[in-house]
Write a structure and sequence with these properties.
Elements: E1 58-59, H1 72-75, E2 82-84, E3 88-96, E4 107-115, E5 125-130, H2 138-145, H3 151-156, E6 157-162, H4 178-185, H5 194-215, H6 224-237, E7 243-248, H7 250-261, E8 266-272, H8 281-303, H9 315-331, H10 344-354, H11 361-372, H12 377-387, H13 398-409, H14 417-430, H15 435-441, E9 457-458, E10 467-474, H16 480-489, E11 493-501, H17 511-521, E12 531-534
Parallel strand pairs: 1-9, 5-6, 5-7, 7-8, 8-10, 10-11, 11-12
Antiparallel strand pairs: 2-3, 3-4, 4-6
Helix pairs in contact: 6-7, 9-10, 10-12, 11-12, 14-15
Length: about 525
Amino acid sequence: MTVARSRRTAPAAVLAAAVSLLLAGCSSGHPSSSGTPSGAPGRSTDSVTGRPAPSGATPLEPLPTEQPAGLAPYYAQKLAWKACDSGFECATFKVPLDYAHPGDGHDVELSVVRKPAGDASRRIGSLLLNPGGPGGSATDYAERVAARYDASVRAGYDLVGFDPRGVGRSAPITCLTGPRMDTYTGTDLTPDDQGEIDAVVAADKEFAAGCRAGAGELLGHVSTVEAARDMDVLRELVGDRKLNYVGKSYGTFLGATYAGLFPGRVGKVVLDGAMDPSLDAVTGNLTQAGGFETAWKAFAEDCTKRDDCPVGHSVQEAGEKLTALFAGLDAKPLPTEQNRSLTESQALTAVAEAMYAESLWPYLREALNTARAGDGSGLLKLSDSYYGRDSDGSYDNLMYANMAVNCLDLPAPFTDPAAVAAAVPAFEKAAPHFGRDMAWMALGCAYWPDAATGAPHTVRAAGSDPIVVVGTTRDPATPYAWAKSLAGQLEGGRLLTYEGDGHTAYQRQNACIDNAINDYLLGGEAPENGKTCKD
């Protein structure tokens, strides 16, 4: 979904002990100017939840099965694999900047890595991995997580990660210098007067202008539809008749888009931490805000049972103390061990970052205790991790790509500050601690230099092989209702539920989830629709 400072569903590796966390994200899109035919407006019903899709959501129609002649050279490329990065192989391939005009001399070079299958005699094919974002580097991700895949999966598949256009090693978008990004992340997103509202608008405009200057014409061609079409080129180049894929969070939207465009080329596809592409940006942001609130309550319930809990002895008291902390920081930022102060916005980001996984809860308790003592260093570290800030003051590319993709995939949720202000009460009702901040975050795309090419849509992927959709009941970033909705839209959808906390479920040390997915990937049947796993 489209958010400004992007409450992306992508926890970075916050601290060394949290390196196992998975990147993820939130956006949606629909083809328009990307050369993809759209269906006639319709109103579909979710077969799992029984709720009708929004009246504005149109079905995503598949591309013609015949390949346009202009794309033949791209599908005929040969990948020149070279050894790199601790047992991995690296290559690049080209895709058209604009699929409506392939071969016009405007191409984008994309980077891809693979870990070859461990047993050639048992090789099934390639398994593409995407961590989400949008903007998460799949090349970095594949290199980081490949060794943690089940031994049988590693033996049977080449594990492959490619960075979508504008991301990581694939023509990365950059927007602001490190110092300017520091200012941007600290901007007050709970404005109290016109001056503070003007500051939010100025920050969003500066960010958008920086992205235009840094990315040029690529900025208008980083939609999810285009990334899905790039993924089909790669499928052909690695020699697979059908796509095998594991996508997390925003990666589920990318995978669902692929399935909608190329249903006959769907192989073993897992969509973990699923998004609902039928939602408009306002509804998506509002629902996600509620997801963070649910996760905060789960954290508070756990915290209040511990001796080192910094937020009191009840969920209500915890909420009151968090509100007081934010209010205090709004009035006066806290000093830190860096030459930077902790603002209210950064503190809220820190808390949100820790909602992604239970493994981060101890760090949040410690950081909140430190903040009570007058030192904001712990919370600032969590916020910096969320935004991808390195210790040298530089930022990775994730947030820049995140905004660029989100602003193309859906029309801006709000067109001006007045529209945000009108929506704030609904956001605060859904999420008393996160709602106001997240409403103002959603203003950024109002000033984006390229018009959105997508719109809310449903994905049926008629005729595809079964697709496993995984939802976690207390997921903060991709609420469980989204997984239920997506599974219901997909003709071949199989809903797999994890009753628990955190963002995404596969490879989170739940044997029930892991075994069900590993068996499916290795040639077994998809899990029975509605299967539930618990802690």
